[in-house]
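Whether sequence alone determines local backbone shape is best considered at the level of individual chains. The sequence in question and its structure tokens are set out directly beneath this paragraph.

===
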Amino acid sequence: MVSTVSAKNGTWRNWGGNVTVRPAREVTPASVDELAAAVRRAAEDGMPVKAVGTGHSFTSIAATDGLLVRPGLLTGIREIDRAAGTVTVEAGTPLKRLNVALAREGLSLANMGDIMEQTVSGAVSTGTHGTGRDSGSIAAQIRALELVTADGSVLTCSETENPDVFAAARIGLGALGIVTAITFAVEPLFLLTAREEPMPFDRVLAEFDELHAENEHFEFYWFPHTGSTTTKRNNRSAGPERPVPPLKGWFEDEFLSNGVFQVANWVGRAAPPAIPAIARISSRALSARTYTDIPYKVFTSPRRVRFVEMEYAVAREALPDTLRELKAMVDRSPLRVSFPVEVRTAPADDITLSTASGRDSAYIAVHMFRGTPHQAYFTAAERIFTAHEGRPHWGKIHTRDASHLSGVYPRFGEFTALRDRLDPDRRFRNDYLRRVLGA
């Protein structure tokens, strides 16, 4: 699950396969000094600069026809400060490697997204999040950042050092500089008990406020063309550790959730009228289960079936109405949707362009199997999301521009003013940033 660059023709593709670019040149710096020198040289040549991670964004946020920076040598843990409860990690480190290393040290992040293939810098720069009543996105767990700015200088920021940069750069969209190191808050390793079970769509929405309030981490998946959902509640546990048995885990998480699901999507792509029947079978395929394990093994799951995705954040109280409208739209349309709709939550945070900035939020993610036309579904869904003042995930497909986004982000002007100061010549420009931030 990584992006690819073909040595033959120099092209770069994202994981979803919907973004392809041919940069003029590439660099894989082995140090911050090498990266800074590469940025200065690009400036001398009048060339735009973008850093890429593993390509899990479905937007062209990292695309460039200029200098492509690969962070593959900027990896590893710089420092663990147990007294402060922090870990400082190089920007190119995959989240999976970080999680495994922290667990070995008896430490953990408080929350995670549902995959861990991304680099830490790519994940935080686009606002990657999981679900949580009290704990927010991965970026909300940042305590300090180091980045190379447009003039090749190295800038560090935290709540006390360059706090205006810190407020914005935790989810910086690659517009303020290239992140080179991140300091995260960590805590002693703990256990989570996961309870997964089916629940009718109408019931989960009727009880959504209670389910959110009673569980540290609540999420659910609704299967379009059905009235069924699968719910997941994750809560801290005193133990003992009771992981999913290996054979059962392989059968449910690999064979059913990936292998059989892949085949079902192939069938659905070849014969769209079969999708509602497939959805009804899929919604009943996984039985209820409960298990207890360390956090990253509970928060994350393998995702091997390739897709494209749109996700919007709405105010948490708007979730039931928004989702009912989405279901009604699918039910009355000729659309055939083979992927479940994912719903998660996050508490309000203080990050300038976080999708949860200043408001408790609920996330609704819609997906389509890669190679299946998605425009009609995503357009109709986006119309519903924007009617509820939704904010699009920065790394997932959307059509919003600066004029819309400035209206749903109260601190939008604060971010663009900082960008004017740190990158007046738009060294880190590309078409996506031009659309979402303005010229």
